[in-house]
Amino acid sequence: MTRQGEAFTGPGFSNWFVDCARAAGLPKGCCPHGLRKAAARRLAEARCTVHEIKAVTGHTTLKEVERYTRAADQERLAVAAIARIGSRGPAEP
What we know:
Blueprint: H1 10-23, H2 32-45, H3 50-57, H4 62-88
Helix pairs in contact: 2-3, 2-4, 3-4
């Protein structure tokens, strides 16, 4: 909400956010879009479905959500694969 109690416009929110990030000493390039991507990744890491993530982030297609969560999914799959190998014990020659 703006100081006047009204909803931000898209560009207005973006400008406000960048100003706050700068005032907080955050690195250049911090933008609201980064928050959306971070939220999608954290939701994916928490094993939320793409439909749940789409509901939270407001993406219009599942393809968009999948693009944001691909890295989290890849990491989770790699960890699961290594865990499976470890649970089998040493391989026999």
